Amino acid sequence: MSLPYGPPVKVSPFIRAARYALLVAGIFYGISKQMLYNSLEASWRREEAERQKKRDIENAKLRAKIAAEEREVVRQMESGELFKPGRI
């Protein structure tokens, strides 16, 4: 059986060595970039955790303020102060 394009051509040893050298260089490049991105991601996660703590504190204060206002409105409704004429 013959191949449609003829027999395969022998690849030069220089080209073969260059391919493997570039493959190894690409692997090392990828490893170095991955380490860089990991360190950047770790610092971003630390900063995001600090921001989340601040947001949680602010949200807790806001929830407490809203709850106090709601308690006051319920107290006014129960006592009838909220519906007195001339209030609005």
Automatic annotation (TrEMBL):
InterPro entries: ATP_synth_F0_esu_mt. The chain crosses the membrane at residues 20-37. It is found in: Mitochondrion inner membrane. One of its GO terms (biological process) is proton motive force-driven ATP synthesis. It holds the Pfam family ATP-synt_E. Residues 50-79 form a coiled coil. One of its GO terms (cellular component) is mitochondrial inner membrane. Keywords: Acetylation, ATP synthesis, CF(0), Coiled coil, Hydrogen ion transport, Ion transport, Membrane, Mitochondrion, Mitochondrion inner membrane, Transmembrane, Transmembrane helix, Transport. GO terms for molecular function: proton transmembrane transporter activity. The keyword Membrane applies. Its main location: mitochondrion. F-type ATPases have 2 components, CF(1) - the catalytic core - and CF(0) - the membrane proton channel. CF(1) and CF(0) have multiple subunits. Component of the ATP synthase complex composed at least of ATP5F1A/subunit alpha, ATP5F1B/subunit beta, ATP5MC1/subunit c (homooctomer), MT-ATP6/subunit a, MT-ATP8/subunit 8, ATP5ME/subunit e, ATP5MF/subunit f, ATP5MG/subunit g, ATP5MK/subunit k, ATP5MJ/subunit j, ATP5F1C/subunit gamma, ATP5F1D/subunit delta, ATP5F1E/subunit epsilon, ATP5PF/subunit F6, ATP5PB/subunit b, ATP5PD/subunit d, ATP5PO/subunit OSCP. Belongs to the ATPase e subunit family. Subunit e, of the mitochondrial membrane ATP synthase complex (F(1)F(0) ATP synthase or Complex V) that produces ATP from ADP in the presence of a proton gradient across the membrane which is generated by electron transport complexes of the respiratory chain. ATP synthase complex consist of a soluble F(1) head domain - the catalytic core - and a membrane F(1) domain - the membrane proton channel. These two domains are linked by a central stalk rotating inside the F(1) region and a stationary peripheral stalk. This is ATP synthase F(0) complex subunit e, mitochondrial. It comes from Leptosia nina.
